[in-house]
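Minutes, project check-in
Item: structure for the 176-residue chain
Input as provided by the requester:
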Amino acid sequence: MPLVASPSTTNYFQGTGYATWTPTGGSPRDLGNIVECELTPAVDKLEHKKTRGGSKKTDFTQYNNQAVQIRIVLDEITAANLAMMFMSEVETSGSDEVIRIMSVSTITGALTFTGDNNVGNKVSGVFPSVSFGPTGSFSPISGDDFGQIEITGDLLAVEATDGSSDFGTMTVSPQA
């Protein structure tokens, strides 16, 4: 079925999906259940003002310093997920997995998000270069709710063979 032009109720969206993380030099792995996933673009806006005619008027706008941040909240508390939050590698000690908190300076790799929702178009993303770091907190006591961890990454621009650069791609596929 092709994508439907607006206005249409088939364009209402209730997103679900999963993410695969491939650390630099490592193997792909599923991040588990994702509670929240947000992409936030940011730019610096540079405006040129025309100063003739009695008042300044904007006659040109350029956007510099483009950046995109991804925020992911996970509720599967694994050593590998905690290691992303606490900037660590996972070490094995018998049957245990150990992370040494803040023992590495960068957590980099590629992230793929695959939309699998039943309502609305499916939105998927491929982000070939991401650098993750801690932004939230982790509570080893979770009270009435399931425990969660938050990781935030910067999508890094990659250069294509044609000389252009971008932060990755997003694909919108029609609902089944």
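Outcome recorded: The mean pLDDT is 93.
No further action items on this chain.
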